[in-house]
Fold this sequence. Notes:
CATH architecture of the largest domain: 3-Layer(aba) Sandwich
Enzyme class: transferase
Keywords: Carboxypeptidase, Glycosyltransferase, Hydrolase, Multifunctional enzyme, Protease, Transferase
Largest sheet: 5 strands, antiparallel
EC number: 2.4.99.28
Strand order of the largest sheet: 5-4-16-15-14
Shape: elongated
GO molecular function: carboxypeptidase activity; penicillin binding; peptidoglycan glycosyltransferase activity
Radius of gyration: 39 Å
Helix content: 25-40%
Distance between the termini: 127 Å
InterPro entries: Beta-lactam/transpept-like (IPR012338), Glyco_trans_51 (IPR001264), Glycosyltr_51/Transpeptidase (IPR050396), Lysozyme-like_dom_sf (IPR023346), PBP_1c (IPR011815), PBP_C (IPR009647), PBP_transglycosylase (IPR036950), PCN-bd_Tpept (IPR001460)
Amino acid sequence: MMSTGARRRGWLVVALSVALLCSVVFGWVFAGHPLSDFTTVRAGWRSSEARLLDRQGRLVHELRLDHTVRRLEWVPLPAISPALLRAVILAEDRRYYRHSGVDWLALAAAWRDRLSGRPLRGASTLTMQLAARLDRGIALGSGRRGVGQKLRQMRAALALERHWSKQEILEAYCNLVDYRGELQGIAAASRAFFGKEAAALTEAESLVLAALLPAPGRAPALIGDRACALADAAGQGTLCEEVRQLAFVTLTRPRPILPAAELAPHLARQLLRRAGETVVTTLEAGLQQQVRDSLQRQLLALADRNVRDAAALVVDNHSGEVLAYVASVGSASTAVQVDGVRARRQAGSTLKPFLYGLALEHRYLTAASLLDDAPLNLETMVGIYMPQNYERDFKGLVSLRTALASSLNIPAVRTLMLVGLERFRDRLWELGYEGIERKGEYYGWSLALGSAEVSLLEQVNAYRTLANGGRFGPLRLLPGEAGGTERRVMPADVSFLIADILADPAGRARTFGLASPLATRGWSAVKTGTSKDMRDNWCVGWTPQCTVGVWVGNFEGDAMRDVSGISGAAPVWHEIVTALEEQRPGPAPAAPPGLERRQISFAGAQEPPRQEWFLAGTAVETVVPADPRRQGARIESPADGLVVALDPDIPPDHQVIPFRARMPLPEAVFELDGQVLGAAAAALRWHPRSGRHRLRLLDAAGHELDRVTFLVR
């Protein structure tokens, strides 16, 4: 039997052992815990959204890219509603500002209740909850934490309080805490439940959000009860019924988070790649919004004419920076994913400035040259091509200035016959129309009227080339973005002449009148276009500072009803240019060296006398109509671009190709591959030989009246 002294020594050993164990445990708890600093935690936060900003840092578009969780931007403590901060502390840690990470009183009460069999109560402080979130090793799994995890959590909380301020802990907690479903952080919760930023939360909304924190998945009625209890505890019992109702309504309806900004969806999908990233663009958010609003108003006005889609692009002439990129806005659109800035559509009359520019550059014509706007029938490989003007009438002899400014079709086709298909096609390629990649003969004479498909992006940059005096350069969407070097595509004097024509109200009056959406208060040059069957409307032009392009139509390609470039796209172009003239005024361009300005008159009074610009060495004072026979003379057979296949079963002497000319001059001759064949007054029968051939119609002085090329196989 153990003596009393021995028992005392035994109890002393036990007591000393317990004390030693407690000292070791508490020493370990208070010794510190490896953790991240506040700056690192905040920097490591990744929103599930990516953000597109304008050139001044303003939000243009927000796009969700992470679909595993819903987080928004980190919210600094001053940007969180004080009502929410009070509610969170009341709900989760009432002595938050009076402890150093562990609430020993709450912990002791929790152990007392556990030992006495009472219902368990939580004793984790905000700091302990945050510590568990930062250290996944002590995070709560499917059950309650064990003693070891709880001690580790306490150790981490005490370390947090030693290294972080109370404000940093509270800010991190509000941003990292889980709410209902996929929502994490106060920014996502406030937007999802109440459609507002965290700074704007009311007392009632804050109480409901705080009531979610212990168990976000609870039934709405239980959340409402807890929110009511919090309201009573805060001395706001009058809010009880309101928070119950608010909890029920909020938690039983869908919770979509609408983007904070949604001005450039197509561009966002193009530029944003990773969740949490922020991309700064060259856009101007205010202008982007203005352009969208203008397009939407126009689509509403045209809704009864089967018009569903529209797009617009605005760029800075000097830098090539894109200022507005609106790829689709139609609420009735059935193809909203289509990028209307990059999609290719028929160009209509918008290619004519570059055609006439070639004719001026090669001195084939001047701005005062007369062209015949009269019926024209052209034989092609697929039949007779008969171009028509938009108004289905003919103006007779008109100057190049009038033909281009008033967008007459037949003079454009005659000019293409003069310039040549391949040369025009090559010029369009040089201007960045990369979709026009086939040989000119594929497009035929209708290329003059825009039968090829182009994008709004290509259109705007080609017209920007005119604005920059014939120099072509890349467009930029990102500040400081490296691009290709500039190159000269057109002479500066030719570019100025085309610009002067497109800016001439009198020149366009025959078709558009003097009062139209093309007339602006400041200097601007502009061209409209309408594709076949009114499927596409274009209006592209520039001011001294910016180039603006607008497209209106239907992405599916169905025709609009009685909508042309002047009534469809031009009103939007006018609104945008009017805004730009106020924001970015500039003087009219000055004439480059070498141009001459003369007073001219027309011998046949086709047009009133006027001042006209001429390239050096081409000026005249009186414009005399050419011999009409020369204008009408052309090769009828063979058709330009014809491909002839020799038949091996027919003797070569029995195979012929007829050479015929329409309205030839009496002295006109045919020349084949540089060799004169004979007079063109009557048809010639030529025995074909393999190869590519060039047939020309020449006058007595050897001047070319017409030419065709064809292939014999």
